[in-house]
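Problem 3 from the worked examples.
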Amino acid sequence: MPSRLPDFVDPWRMADLEKVFSGCVAIVDLPRLAEMVCDADGGVELRLMFNREGGKRASITGFVKANLTLECQRCLSPMAALVESQLNIALVGSAEEAECLPEHYDPLLLDEPRIRLLDIVEDELLLSLPQVPRHKEGECCAAAGWEAAQPAADFKESDNRPNPFAVLSELKQK
């Protein structure tokens, strides 16, 4: 990938300097995300802008975007998925400060004086992954098999099978 992000930065200083980081990072550099995808080739496009709102609240805004290959949970074959997230993160030093934030901010509680930028990028992408990745309707190779399957509502209730709860009914009457 062409651009290289610094491994660690001081977020308070970056906000004071209104620093902007943009470019691409390889998916293989994001180990937790690489475990979730079928193919770790490719990259993540990003733009992270550190700033201070009104000279006071330090924040990170921007976006992360990646074309990922995920496993369809319907047919278990690979599928392409565009995963993107808009960032609006407020840097906070305590849980009390995080509770007082306006709702449009996601708090980032800073325990250490420095943060790893790739962790922010990876966290945002992981949170943006679909819970159950599936092909679109009509694109899934398992869809034909699902339509051919007999729906549960078509079972005949007139089947002469013994009711397994009939014994309980007899016990209740005694």
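Problem 4, a separate protein:
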Amino acid sequence: MSVLTRRTLAAALAGGAAVMPLLPAGARAAPGTGTVFTANERDASISAIDLASGRVSSVRMPVAPHNVDAAAGGRLLLAVGADEAGHRSGRHAGDPGRLILLEPVPGGAPRVTAALPAGRHPAHVVADAAARRAFITDAGADALLVVDLGEERIRATVPVGGYPHGLRLSPDGREAWVANVKDGSVSVVDVARAQVVARIAAGPSPVQVGFLPDGSRVFVSLRGADAVAEIDTATRQVVRRIPVGPGPVQVFATPDGRFVFVANEGTRAAPGTSASVIDVAAGRVAATIETGRGAHGVVVCADGSRAFVTNMFDDTVAEIDVGTQTVLRRFAVGRAPNGITWIPA
């Protein structure tokens, strides 16, 4: 392991104990504080938005990052992407994908600490609670990659559906749910066994999944149907489809489980400009918030006070007050921001 990686993981995993969640139970972040990070695919950068000051800082990346996620209680960032040449040409020859580890820097851009192999065409990445394993969808191999972060190597390759894209771990950490864009399914992977245990027909072009905090439901964006499928995790059945805006991409539930935010990207020719807010109990859209052109990524901070949406075609991030369901600020970031994540101050 490289020295930088060892130091980063050692700090995150001090004493070998399980890492705390982004905020301890019962704690609340001050509204509008912390740092938001975006993966900017078109200029190969990660932007950091310091919410207290409003300052935006960016760092150049060795790949064109599509997704970024926080791990180890916000002390570690993971980003995935392919090299710029492969991304621009659409040809992912060999294994150009990389998992980039970054260390957040208070008030500034994060530091790149390591680059690990990540298959042909990595799309999304998440880490387990202890930040010892990362799970990466490889759209170029129709597989889920399991990466040992300590050993810096791929431990398992799990065949899933056609063109896997978004994924999330279940709240108990036992399963990874993977959206397979090209075959309309969601693969459920037993993390301990590295094995698919279920395949659920979700609908046209599923892009991303999002759990309610209690793990009882999964919401799946159906880009090909302008809808979100709601799945009962116990029965593994779709219980309803909820119409949203055009071309929905990422989804994220509020910590109280009352709402699910959906980013509606549309297409480059006809961009979506909004986030749909699903009332979970009612099973319908309760509000539509204008965020910007090409709404793509979405995250809700741990206390539920703010949601953040990347706007791919505006190169911006919209900060939303969840209580009033209004946009408070917009931040200019790098070009074509896709994935987004948040860490506490």
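Solution to problem 4. The first strand starts at residue 35 and ends at 40. The chain has a mean pLDDT of 91.
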